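Structure tokens please, single chain.
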Amino acid sequence: MAAFLVRRLLQMFLVTIVAAICSYTLLYISPGGPIDQLLGERQNGGVNRINQDDILRVKQRFELDIYAPVRFSRWLIGWPTGPILGSIGADWTVGCAIPGQVRLRYPDGRTEIVEEGCDQPVTLADLEGRKSSRGVFFLDFGVSQVILRDRPVIDLIGTRLPYTLYLMGGSTLLALVIAVPIGVYSAVKQYSRFDYTMTTIAFVGSSLPSFVFGIFAILIFSVLAKQAGLPYLPSGDAVGIRDYAIPLLGTIEAGSFFDRFLRFLMPCGVLTFISIAGWSRFVRGSMLEVLSQDYVRTARAKGVKESAVVLKHALRNSLIPFITLLAGVLATLFGGALITETVFNWPGLGRLYIDALGRSDYNVANALLLINVVLLLIGILITDILYTIVDPRIRLG
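Here you go.
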């Protein structure tokens, strides 16, 4: 076991490095960055000229005037922060304040090309006066560049984490408690009316995207129910900002436990339904395969009670493939549901990631991506260990 853990931890470290490089590179080369946003804001505001100072300030704010390898090193391990290796550090140009050509387009149709070249080279000595995190390897994710400017990313994540944990934790727990019994019973009662009904519901839940269920839930339980004078659920947010009245329930105080519970029901219900649809079908298929095995038929031939055959002999072995499906639960609990949180305006980490991408807050987006990768790798490791508990025949070496 010790050799296995050492080998897996080394593999996890290498995978994390590769994932960090890929995510960091893809975010910075994707279109719609801060320079494009600056041009769009100025043109929409009717400003007919964008000078080089504006572009330079944006580049310095996002460290786009530093070459990508150095910028990535500063983000990952917090180095370099200033001059290194004596005179080499003072003379080594690591970036350009105005690299390449930038073509500006104005509302009146005119175009202008910003002067190319490196008129203002950035050296390692220049980095000494800039703020630099200790690096994500030391759990310092830097500061937010847009959403909460100059606030530590870890503080921003900490404010959103509780909302994601109790939303995803509640929906995952409910889905497990409901999906496993449904899958087992559907397999035992194969081709029964119950099996056909749950199969149809599972196909619907697996086929449609989550935002469809979210929109339908808002229309039915918020809009139509309110118009009909029936008790309704708030359509979004995690906490109300003012008191409101619901038929038969009376006045709901904003920020109270009941207010939070009512707002929790719809996003939790949507996520639970989607998880049940997929997991119940997976458990059913795995259970059907086990029930056809020889040792199950032998147990029945010996006169073992059907409940003991199902629960003791079949269920435990059928859960081995299901454990693989649960490898990503840890990352899901932290990362949240991107679409569902956006539809219901839930202030969790999924919504935070969407906001970070839309507003080019690279430090926040990169931090969330890297944390999810690490949690996914940890989940896979835990899954491998659980295999040995469920099936004693499996040995890790």
